[in-house]
Structures are given as structure tokens and as C-alpha cells.
Amino acid sequence: METNIFMVRHAESLYVNGKEKQRGLSSFGLQEANKVSLILKDIEIDAIYSSDYNRSLETVKPLSDLKKTKIIELTDLRERRMKPEHIELTYNDFIEAVKKSYENFDFSISGGESIRDVHERAIPVIEMIIKNHKGKNIVIGTHGNLMTMIMKYYDDSYGYSFWEKTSMPDIYVLTFNENKLIRINRKWNESAQNT
After folding, report:
1. What residues form DSSP beta bridges with 172?
2. Does domain 2-80+113-194 have CATH number 3.40.50.1240?
3. What is the pLDDT along the chain (195 residues), one digit of tens a residue?
4. Global pTM?
5. Whose CA is closest to 36, among 189, 188, 193?
6. Domain range annotation of the chain
7. Is the peptide bond before 169 cis (omega within 30 degrees of 0)?
């Protein structure tokens, strides 16, 4: 029995240091969130989960409204903490840290999370969702780094180069049989131009 998890990476959100949880979508991001709902409108959705970060919630809210399905917020689906919020990184330092982390699962900036740390909090949540919605379609509002790390847990071919190519928003369908990943398909690129 196949279970499909639609991983919806949040739409465009302007970066504000120290406001990871609070920052929402840009006006363009809000338009793109509506496209997400149009792409998924004909799919029977059993549940919608999301990170508790505003940008993820705002990305799946139009779908939630359309489907009249409450969003279940789960803190453990939040984006990876790369560093303490009060510390600023240059863009190049951020990119270098992301690259290093995909090479070494235990690497983290002091006060940040390693990929191993993220797997320890997020994978049990994914497996709980699969168990509770076996054979169904589930949507998860998520983040690019977290989504890639979850995919990497189940398929080691995913990593930095994949993360770098994802868009905001993006939609990937992870199909499971029990807790075994069967396939991953991108839904955003095939559908976004047609909405």
C-alpha cells in the first residue's frame, strides 16, 4: 500500500536575520502559494502538516482553505538551525556550511544543527505520519534544507547539488511502502507553468 507525501517547499520569503520563525512570504511568494493549491486541488488529501514557521504555513494555507482541512503544525518539521539567531553569516559562509554538512553529517556551526541532529528530530515525525496515514496522500509544508535532508535519509543520492537546484516554492512527491521509499517525483516543474 503506497503512501504519498507531498513535500511543499515554502514560496519566496525575504531573509531577515533573527526572524526565522516569524518571517512570512513576499507578495510574489503569496501568489506562488496560490499556484501550489491549484496544482494539488484535484488530489485527495488526507492531512496537511507544516513546519510552524510562518513562510511554510503561508505556503500551504491556500490549499488548506481550498480543501477545508486544518493545518497540523509540528515544531520538529522546522528548518534546520544553521547557527544561533544572533549571529550573522555572509551568503558565501552559509553556502560553504551547507556544502560541508552534506559531506559530513556531524558538521555544524557552533550552536547550529548537524544533518544527524535534524534526522533525529524529523525522521520519527515522517515515520509517524506514514504510519497514521498509510495508503493516503499527505501534504507537508516544509523548507528546502529540511526537505533535502529527509530525502537524503532515504536516498543517499540527494544532497547539496539537489538542494541548490530546488525552487521556492517546490513540490516533490515521496512515495513510500511502509517506511521504505519507492520513488521521488517532482510535481512543481511539470505543473507550475500550466496554472
Report:
1. 7, 186
2. yes
3. 899 999 999 999 977 666 677 788 999 999 999 999 999 999 999 999 999 999 999 999 999 999 999 999 999 999 888 776 777 778 888 889 899 999 999 998 888 899 999 999 999 999 999 999 999 999 999 999 999 999 999 999 999 999 999 999 999 999 999 999 999 999 997 556 555
4. 0.92
5. 188
6. 2-80+113-194
7. yes
